[in-house]
Amino acid sequence: MWPIYTSPLLAGYFFAATLSLLVSGVVIAAEPLAKVEPLAATASSNPTVPAPLASEESTVLLTEQQRLERELLLMVAALDEQSYQGTLTYEFGGPLETLVFEHLVSTSGTQERIRHLSGYQRFFSRHLPHEHCSNAAMRLFAQQGQNPLGHLENYYAFRALGQNRFADRRVNMVQILPKDQYRFGFTLGIDSETHLPLMVALMGPRGEMLERFQFIQMAAVAPSNDSSAASMAGAQALAYADSNCEQPLLESGWQPQWLPDGFVLASIDDSAHKTVMSYTDGLASLSIFVVPITEASGAVGVVQRGATVVAMLLAAQNQKSYKVSVVGEVPAGVARRVASSVIYVNDKAEVVTHE
Q1: How far apart are CA 11 and CA 76, in angstroms?
Q2: I want to staple 202 with a disulfide (CB 3.0 to 4.6 A). Which of 9, 105, 273, 307 is the partner?
Q3: pLDDT at residue 343, rounded to an integer
Q4: Backbone angles phi, psi at 17, to 5 degrees
């Protein structure tokens, strides 16, 4: 899910890593998977961000809800605009990993790198050009004439939890609670100076921690294109999903007949070898993969790693077998229900069978 609070590389990398570890190639692990990146839009570039809330010098007296909205808008702008690097821990249901992460913004675009300090050696990088269109949820809800945070208020409640310290920096704590059983909750620790999220925890329905990112050291940096290029040696390049910044249309083909309220289509990749559809409510996201059974094993069931769940089942259409997999940071029952609702739709309204 890596929504409003993490960088695109952290989001996409951990999403792909989860699939690789959990499914071991059963779904699609031949390439890094594109992950929806909701709500990471800048205050300067998005007309839906109200100027008084995005301005540091605003002296307007704000309600608690307005202060929380301002905090989140400043955070998503900081994630998009600032260069920073640091060391963080990633905890998911017991295991703990330590990583170094860099997010460098320059005239040539954004360079991101992530290197594991524990376990076997892993080093990944990604370059996003300036014209790359990310921030799916902000873009989609803005096109629908909605305030993105106003949309979230239909499905989540926001609470201020006071202040704390992470990475020897003062942070403002924000709790985000789901209003139904179809989503997880979040706790954010947002740096009061840079507005970057220094701690992100995903919480289960009983308040249990499913997954947590936490910086133990973080600093703003001034990127150098030369040094950035030099330090890329040995890194495995991860691809990113290109987008034309327009809301996709899904008129025929594979599609779900049920989704939790508030989820909208963010991207679609339809080819002869696979169909991938990504949906988001602005915080949570899930992706649906449909592949011919000849290109994936017949394993079915539900597996979970931290907050990420994978629900897999088989479907038949035109006497051909397909694997339907739903991957996302949603409760297991939601993923299973979405997967079982996926059918193939064409002019004849053909229905598939699930096994």
Answers
A1: 14
A2: 307
A3: 92
A4: -65, -40
